[in-house]
Amino acid sequence: MIHTYSGESLQFDLKYKNRKSIGIFLDSYGNIEVQAPKGTDEESVIRLLEDHWDGVLQKSKEMKERLNGPQVKSYQHGEPFLYLGRSYPIEVVHTPDITKDSVTFNGDALKIQVRELEDERIKHALKRFYYKKCKSIVESSISVHQRHFKIKPRSVRISDSQKTWGTCDGRRQLTFNWKLAMAPRGVIDYVVVHELCHMIHLNHDRSFWRLVGKIVPDYKEKEKWLASTSWKMTV
Fold first, then answer.
1. pLDDT tops 90 at residue 92
2. Mean pLDDT, residues 9-32 taken together
């Protein structure tokens, strides 16, 4: 079935089953199925769907986009990039007389000044920006959460890992992924706490998770954000 509401159309399958209430479900491909008790009138189904319209539509779109994988960036003026959990447009400014390409955030956009309008220059400028911001935010977060620990990390560095958000080795050397600068501060704090806890518990046993949970009670929500959004965190 196809239903149009608030200017947008949504396709869904309606199935009648032995159940007590109407339920809305999305499969791993973003397809929508509405299950209703036998004998339910279609008007009730549509009314419930409209009540949850924005959330269902957004979730379906995100799941379908995720299946297509990260979109190839064009680095065009106005293209959105994540920063601290929100999408901001980039403003590319050709400035031939500068000595070094740079990126600044003004609260509404990421302003990129480059000597030449080349995709690689824009990409590298963005990566340097994220590296720098990630380092600053991570170090600030460590300072805030250090009060929970009697020992301190020996070193902190930012990396370009393709597999992890952070690591802590046996010498208490912490490493964090530069892409964390694209995540909300609360998510960054969780990753920082996660690695700080590894200074005490190197594995993921119950004691480790108890300590993490004591400092970040909603850490599972932070993990869900990373799991569902990591594919968007790219330049």
1. yes
2. 88
